[in-house]
Write a structure and sequence with these properties.
Elements: H1 2-5, H2 20-31, H3 36-61, E1 65-66, E2 69-70, H4 72-76, H5 78-96, H6 105-132, H7 139-164, H8 169-196, H9 199-202, H10 208-211, H11 217-223, H12 228-237, H13 244-253, H14 256-277, H15 282-297
Antiparallel strand pairs: 1-2
Helix pairs in contact: 2-3, 2-7, 2-15, 3-5, 3-6, 3-7, 6-7, 7-8, 8-14, 8-15, 11-13, 11-14, 12-13, 14-15
Length: 300
Amino acid sequence: MAAYQFGWSGEGARQGGKYVRAALTLACARAVGGADRQAVPAAAAVEMVHNLSLLYDDVLDGDTVRRHRAAAWQVFGPSSAARSADAMMLTAFDVLSEADGPDGPVAREASAALMDVLIQLAVGESLDLVFEGRTQVTLAECLEMVSGKTASLFACACRLGALYGGADRVVCAQWAEAGHDLGMAFQLVDDLLGIWGDPAVTGKPVFNDLKNRKMSVPVVAALTSKTPAGDELARLYSQPGGDTANLARLVEEAGGRAWTRDRAAQHATAAHGRLRRLTAVPSALEDLEALCTVVIRRVH
């Protein structure tokens, strides 16, 4: 089942993810003077945590499509998906020990960072579910959710890359801060794609987040805009069904799309700034800055 989730087997195989987090881990290792191969265990662990979060996310949200094909739980069942996610989590901790053994200082520090991010992911996902049952959510609450469910893993990817590349704790924390900003930008763009993305590119149904009444950042920005369009959106969003295209129009008219796009750009710019202030190998830094640009301009 893990092979299916990674896009390695089953119908529609080779439709795997973007591996952005793994790429971040390897690039950060290079940036601090290490080599790609040193950080491969960390990159693998980060990618496993990302995919186990997707397994849980699809089950909890009832999403039936992932990466242009049936979500894993649709093929194997929700119980099998949960067990596979648990196995990925245990394997992630196991591979981290390849650097210096399970009791080595790098493995211990990496495992602590991974445990912390798993907790943050759980909190972020829990907030996501709680918000679906509420009619009022603040932007601060929504951004806290984004920080937990997405940005925390980007921060961890950069931290582990720097750690396995040989950096000390202070430097690792600085790389994690850059990763957090990049992760915030990534999720904000993802929220935009969840409403206005092309299904042929994103692999998800059109207006999927609106259909599921997700309290995503564009929606919350619109609902809290104190505009006529925002008020109308609030009235319709509390009711099941309806014209999702009209909901998307109201989100945009209330300023939710523009607010989210601007906030994503702010976080991407902040990530750029943090990267430039770090002492890094120039070629790796260029790769990371290019990744910041890709994140803000991506279409899937």
